[in-house]
Write a structure and sequence with these properties.
Blueprint lengths: L1 H7 L8 H32 L5 H37 L1
Helix pairs in contact: 2-3
Length: about 90
């Protein structure tokens, strides 16, 4: 019980942005990857259904393309942050 009490009263507890900001920040790439996976599954459905639905296929393909681009931007930003930390540490 003391562990929970100390966490609740710490400067980085659930009542502050020090906890919620990283939590939501990490949820964004997970949500993006979920949308990409959903788009891939739905693309297959749009192609396999009879008659094929090319409009739905194009819709999901374009959505997946945008989500993959957003995910790549997130990875590049994380890599840039790591490089900035290394450069700052080397100085």
């Amino acid at each position: 019980m003391n562990i929970l009490r100390s966490f609740w009263n710490s400067p980085t507890d659930l009542k502050t942005t020090h906890f919620w900001d990283p939590a939501f920040n990490w949820s964004l790439p997970f949500a993006c990857s979920d949308v990409c996976l959903f788009g891939t599954v739905r693309e297959g459905f749009a192609w396999m259904v009879r008659p094929p639905n090319p409009h739905l296929l194009v819709c999901h393909a374009s959505n997946e393309t945008v989500q993959l681009y957003q995910l790549s931007r997130w990875f590049r930003a994380q890599r840039g942050l790591e490089q900035n930390k290394k450069e700052a540490g080397a100085e």
